Amino acid sequence: PLRVVSSCRLVIYTFPFDIQNCSLTFGPYLHFATDMRMIQGLTSEEILKESQDVLQTNGEWELAGISVAPSTLTLDEGGYSEIKYYIILRRRPVLYVVNLLIPSCFLITVDLFSFLLPPQTVDRSSFKMTLILGYTVFLLIMNDLLPVTGETTPLINVFFSISLALMVASLLETVLITNIQCSSSQYNAVPRWLSVLVLRYLAVVVFLPRKKKNNQITVFLNPSLIAKNFSNTDISAIQLQPVFGDTPPVNPPPEPALDELRKLSRDLLAIRLQVDKHFQGSETSQEWQMIGIVIDRLLFGLYIVFIAVSFITIICLWSNHYAA
Amino acid sequence: PLRVVSSCRLVIYTFPFDIQNCSLTFGPYLHFATDMRMIQGLTSEEILKESQDVLQTNGEWELAGISVAPSTLTLDEGGYSEIKYYIILRRRPVLYVVNLLIPSCFLITVDLFSFLLPPQTVDRSSFKMTLILGYTVFLLIMNDLLPVTGETTPLINVFFSISLALMVASLLETVLITNIQCSSSQYNAVPRWLSVLVLRYLAVVVFLPRKKKNNQITVFLNPSLIAKNFSNTDISAIQLQPVFGDTPPVNPPPEPALDELRKLSRDLLAIRLQVDKHFQGSETSQEWQMIGIVIDRLLFGLYIVFIAVSFITIICLWSNHYAA
Amino acid sequence: PLRVVSSCRLVIYTFPFDIQNCSLTFGPYLHFATDMRMIQGLTSEEILKESQDVLQTNGEWELAGISVAPSTLTLDEGGYSEIKYYIILRRRPVLYVVNLLIPSCFLITVDLFSFLLPPQTVDRSSFKMTLILGYTVFLLIMNDLLPVTGETTPLINVFFSISLALMVASLLETVLITNIQCSSSQYNAVPRWLSVLVLRYLAVVVFLPRKKKNNQITVFLNPSLIAKNFSNTDISAIQLQPVFGDTPPVNPPPEPALDELRKLSRDLLAIRLQVDKHFQGSETSQEWQMIGIVIDRLLFGLYIVFIAVSFITIICLWSNHYAA
Amino acid sequence: PLRVVSSCRLVIYTFPFDIQNCSLTFGPYLHFATDMRMIQGLTSEEILKESQDVLQTNGEWELAGISVAPSTLTLDEGGYSEIKYYIILRRRPVLYVVNLLIPSCFLITVDLFSFLLPPQTVDRSSFKMTLILGYTVFLLIMNDLLPVTGETTPLINVFFSISLALMVASLLETVLITNIQCSSSQYNAVPRWLSVLVLRYLAVVVFLPRKKKNNQITVFLNPSLIAKNFSNTDISAIQLQPVFGDTPPVNPPPEPALDELRKLSRDLLAIRLQVDKHFQGSETSQEWQMIGIVIDRLLFGLYIVFIAVSFITIICLWSNHYAA
Amino acid sequence: PLRVVSSCRLVIYTFPFDIQNCSLTFGPYLHFATDMRMIQGLTSEEILKESQDVLQTNGEWELAGISVAPSTLTLDEGGYSEIKYYIILRRRPVLYVVNLLIPSCFLITVDLFSFLLPPQTVDRSSFKMTLILGYTVFLLIMNDLLPVTGETTPLINVFFSISLALMVASLLETVLITNIQCSSSQYNAVPRWLSVLVLRYLAVVVFLPRKKKNNQITVFLNPSLIAKNFSNTDISAIQLQPVFGDTPPVNPPPEPALDELRKLSRDLLAIRLQVDKHFQGSETSQEWQMIGIVIDRLLFGLYIVFIAVSFITIICLWSNHYAA
């Protein structure tokens, strides 16, 4: 009955799925190998079986196997006979899978789905920010659970870093799209090459056929026509004419009713243009928004591809090490 | 007066309601059973009573019972007489119920009720995201309180994982519904089969009778009629006609008042259509929104059923183990 | 100079205001009471005074009193003379009051005041969710500070649980009210009994006199009148008549100006009804919203009453124990 | 080479800037002062210099000074010659300033600036709630860093409590203002005394001169005039007259065009009033909002004053103790 | 086989990239240097190689080098021969880079990008507040990981403080801009010098050419003209004239149709002005908003410059120390 505390070099590269191989070396260091020779009394299966019976509080480690090998420590003055026990410990990953991997995958899934949120109506950037906040809290949990001993960085750290990077990248993308969608009215006209590149070619890639304008026009009764009428000449002049100079030549007799009608017509047109502009935005603005939608969908696709590739790689690495 | 530190294999499957059975074995390992025999001096009731008197700082463990049994450790060379004390310890669950289970149930209840929030007007997805953030903070508390010793994963971990999964699932559902409701204007027309399936059959399942359209039409004075009139022909032509070509044949004399009236009428119609479209959305959009509502309610029902089944199962498991 | 570690059964029912009574028993267990008798050398006041002088790092405990009593431990073979020192330790509650109770009361106050936020315009449910999130973080702090030793659950745990329960309840109430306010347009008409019960009787209880409708009508020029005119007959028919068949019989000569005016009138009426409907909502909707307001205020009242009763009870319990 | 663990009564009133004075007493308690006398070998400067050289891992404590004084412990039987070393330890405050005070001041500053957010358009209450949530997280950090040993509550705790109280107070103020601004349409007219007190006197105090109404009226063409015209008589009657009875007496010949014009005029007036009401709110509502703005600014001023006074007091206390 | 616990003065100025130099001194302090002389048996390379083979659980420290030097401790009575081993330990920075620096840089990047969010439409201040909240959670993680031993404040603390300060500064800036943008309607006219300074000179600095007003006017048909017409005279008088006194002199015969038309015209003008005002804001308001945009962009530029300079400085300091 002797309590021995030994240390073991942990290989935590595949952290929650890792298998440690620790060796215990016993030897009579007072007698040379010529005097005393260590031989093993039980086969390694018997030792394993007995150890598993005796072992009680194994916590997160599971005794997976024990192998025995005699060896000799050779020094200058002579050798010592030794017996080395290799103890294979397999970590029980359930705790870490349940507390770290599953919630993390949940958050990534939410981040993925959040691309479905319309960036304009709902505040998608705020949603994603809260998500990243949740992930930060999550890193806090992780720091309490993760082992710090070891030379190599565990793969799970890479997993979390990639997850965080993806979230941040998707947040930045959202901010960009929001900027395009909301501030588009301050922009200049879309450059020709951008318009062609995005709306003609990329839009096809993301299965977003360019909307036929005609359908939409049936509803608001093309204001571009009206705008075209007024675009060549000075609007203010046109406005002024009916008030001061234009009415007399058309109607020599001061016909007050017609005058009132013209004023009515002018005001109504002003309201109509204002309303059209409000509900629909300018041409430029619309085009920018369309570009925003196309880019949003394109980056969404790239995001899915990148996530898939990253996670399949990591899972492959884990399963390889776990099987080995 | 001797302090003995012993270890005990914990069975934490039913964690906050668990009962541990630890054994203490006393024996004179210097003398064989033929030389010395251990017999118990007090009955187990007396020992229990005395122990409970003496026990002071029992913390979260309550001494539930002690049973005594003599046994013999038989080795090849002879046996040792032993006495085994089985100490039944019952964990006081109040702390964990108050700090873990009750807040968790509260959060789940909030998640359940959040289905009542209208997904369009209020930002339901953001609400649910904050809820999940709160739950993550909560998992942080849990990790400090939960024991990590033990082979099996405690049932409470399953409980928390299911809760988190449900929350995430309901968040994803909300994102989906929000997408249907907000982006519906970009969608194509609802496929026929989907419309029939959802609006006719599923709507009945969720007690949401299809709204009679007539009631609603009484208010906005069917624009579909107007739209129908303009849909066959080219709108812009119609618009242009009164301006350039159509007026002369109808009114040979250049009647300016009538002209103004026609302009007025045209502008007003444009405004009216714009307003109608804004306040009511297109037919397609409305149908998609209706589908969103039906699916939302359907999944809400499924969610309730699933929650109920999961939690009843877990409570049954707990109560079984606690009673046993 | 001998360091003795003793343990003391803590009574933490009134946790941050608790007073512990620990006993130290000294006795010569090698000599029976007949041989050696323990007598106290100093009065308990002297001991207390000297102890307080000597005591340096008392941390959160304050030595409140020491009382001394000789006693005898009687066994079968004879008794031992003992002296028992009862050490009264009073916990310094300032740390816990400042870190736990005051912030908790602050959060409860905020929750109380948040009823003042209008549930429609501002996102009250989201506000309350953030509040609950803050409270969860707060429970995290609490778990680090609270003692876990002890049989009974401390009253402060009950306090926190009630606070959390109240917050959750008020959040659920808010969700419900929000649902009534926002989704009311999808509801059927208010049932007669509910309307009478809530708007006539409960509204009086919460000092919310039913608004006189007339004042409001002066502004929007009763659309119910117009709606009534159109409700009996088929609207679409009325709409169609001026366009196709109705005009000829009324005006035998094809008077185009009048025709245009009628179109104008029709469109304007449509816009007006649309605008009225938008700004004011339907009658049913308004009634539901009124019900929502009444219930909101009623539950607010009940909430205040419940909070007051709970906290007065808890404070009474604490002050009783602290005074004792 | 002897390791001595001593304890020292910490005075943590001025916590991160505190200076501790610990004493170490050495004496030969086997020999009376008559037999053996302790004299110091080195001056206190030499000791200090040598200690500072030797001291390696001083962590957060800096050895500020050592003073030496011989003393005598006088008992009844005789005295012992002692030497007392007073060790002055100064805490390095940088860690706490960087981690506790600076972020806390940042949060307070944000809270102060958040008064600039318009309570109506942006959700100021939600902003402040998030701020308080951040402060709660912050208290969590604080609890890990703050010492709990000591009798008095450190001044930094008072600092944090005042900060939290100020934040909560400003949040409550915001909720109140939001209530006034958003729910003002449900309120009764502003009481005369309140209107005079707030709008005439307090408005001057906060440099917010009452807006001249005329400027605003130039834009919306005083609807109060129209409202006045209709306020005396029953609106519905006026409305009905043109439809049923009023038109015949005015125009004996059934002039349909005029009839249509009157209908047009009526509808347009209704829309205009609706739009006016929407964009501008009622008189009462406007007055309440003005009161809200004045009170908001007034409390903002008080808040600044209170913050300034509190923090200057605390800083004075700290600097006094640090200098001493 | 002797376990020696030694302490080493850590220099944590360049914390996660630090290299520690610890010395171990061995000497026979029973024998003077004249009697016994310590000489090193192996070269420092051999010692290093052997140590690295033997070293197993090195955790976060990597043995970078060992150098050996004989020395002599000279006292008055004689000297002791000593051997000093200098052990160079290099910290493995991966853990800290992954857990502290990368997420921190991510958050800073998000903060930088959040300037792209339009301050008006989306709630940018709320977004930034959540970001700061996330950073606070992050400081919590940092406090668990950072070493507290050491005299100097590590550079990483400065890094975090600067990051937090930048975030808070940008939040304050956002609040200010939001105030300018949202509350601009309450402001007085822009002072002349401010307008010239910001809109003419600063706008050029930030590549934001002043918008030509004409383009915008083409859409809403210059209301300033109308406003100018009404600004000289009393509007209410003009309004009243057509109703009571003005119509009779113009049209001696009571022409009801013209009367109705005038009423129509007046109402429509009122609506038009209201709509214009709503969609476009007043001149002053627009100018303030323009100023807000210019300042926002200017401070954004300064922010980028400051961030760049700070981080390049810190990285230079780190790389210098790491290379050394």
Automatic annotation (TrEMBL), chains A, B, C, D, E:
Record-annotated Neurotransmitter-gated ion-channel transmembrane domain positions: 100-314
TM region positions: 94-117, 129-146, 158-178, 190-208, 298-320
CC terms in the record's Gene Ontology section: postsynaptic membrane
Annotated Pfam families: Neur_chan_LBD (PF02931), Neur_chan_memb (PF02932)
Matches recorded under PROSITE patterns: NEUROTR_ION_CHANNEL
Entry protein name: Neurotransmitter-gated ion-channel transmembrane domain-containing protein
Domain Neurotransmitter-gated ion-channel ligand-binding: 1-93
Domain of life: Eukaryota
Membrane topology: Multi-pass membrane protein
Catalytic reactions on record: Na(+)(in) = Na(+)(out); K(+)(in) = K(+)(out); Ca(2+)(in) = Ca(2+)(out)
Biological role: Forms serotonin (5-hydroxytryptamine/5-HT3)-activated cation-selective channel complexes, which when activated cause fast, depolarizing responses in neurons.
GO MF, any single term: extracellular ligand-gated monoatomic ion channel activity
PANTHER family in the record: NEUROTRANSMITTER GATED ION CHANNEL (PTHR18945)
Subcellular localization: Postsynaptic cell membrane
InterPro entries membership: LGIC_TM_5-HT3 (IPR049944), Neur_chan_lig-bd (IPR006202), Neur_chan_lig-bd_sf (IPR036734), Neur_channel (IPR006201), Neuro-gated_channel_TM_sf (IPR036719), Neuro_actylchol_rec (IPR038050), Neurotrans-gated_channel_TM (IPR006029), Neurotransmitter_ion_chnl_CS (IPR018000)
Protein keywords: Cell membrane, Ion channel, Ion transport, Ligand-gated ion channel, Membrane, Postsynaptic cell membrane, Receptor, Signal, Synapse, Transmembrane, Transmembrane helix, Transport
